[in-house]
Specification:
single chain; alpha+beta; Jelly Rolls; Arc Repressor Mutant, subunit A; 2 domains; 7 helices; 43% helix; elongated
Length: 205
């Protein structure tokens, strides 16, 4: 795991996780977990990142948060221990390596490593704050602000001012429609905030 990640764990717990789990690599945009499927393992991101989406009844999706290196999916943890189905879609944002801990091994971690619960609680707190940000953005921010925040977050995640995304992809992740996103991106370009290219957006500051 990434030793520089904010959610640090002890060498003993890392060793136990490696013993209980198995590694698997997912390519960019490969689906890791689908809504309504049963959760068989808890993922811990070793490298890369995962985007977590929620699908509405009309088929539209909205981005909830990203799972980065050193983090796990609290939704999978909660659903797995209650033998419930997934309420989210998890997709590899880039080539992503996971350590997958089988659900039936989780009780061993809880029993032998109180630190594991602390790790989960920290993740729960972090995810809760991120979900509050999503609610605040939808309720109180204009769509152009949400688009700019989205672009900045993507740039930060990829460590580049250039992000390779279509307007359709942005609309899907923000629960909007392409024509509106295109119009607002053009306005942001006229304001000198971004520069638009073919299937790419460059932050200008």
């Amino acid at each position: 795991m990434n030793p520089n990640n904010i959610l640090k764990i002890s060498p003993d717990l890392k060793a136990k996780l490696a013993e209980l789990g198995f590694e698997k690599t997912f390519e960019e945009n490969e689906v890791i977990l689908r809504e309504s499927s049963y959760i068989k393992a808890i993922p811990i991101v070793l490298s890369g990142s995962i985007r977590v989406m929620r699908t509405e009844e009309d088929g539209r999706e909205i981005l909830l948060y990203y799972i980065k290196a050193g983090e796990s999916c609290i939704m999978s943890f909660l659903g797995g221990i209650h033998d419930d189905t997934s309420k989210i879609n998890a997709v590899a944002e880039e080539k992503t390596e996971l350590l997958l801990i089988p659900i039936d091994k989780i009780s061993l971690l809880v029993k032998d490593f109180p630190e594991w619960l602390d790790y989960i609680f920290k993740l729960y707190h972090k995810r809760f704050e991120e979900l509050l940000d999503v609610v605040d953005a939808i309720a109180f921010k204009k769509l152009d602000e949400r688009i700019l925040d989205f672009v900045k977050n993507k740039a930060k995640l990829s460590n580049s001012k250039v992000i390779n995304l279509t307007h359709e992809q942005i609309a899907n992740e923000l629960g909007s429609v392409r024509v509106v996103v295109s119009r607002l991106l053009k306005q942001l370009e006229l304001e000198g905030v971004v520069e638009l290219g073919r299937n790419k957006i460059t932050l200008c500051n």
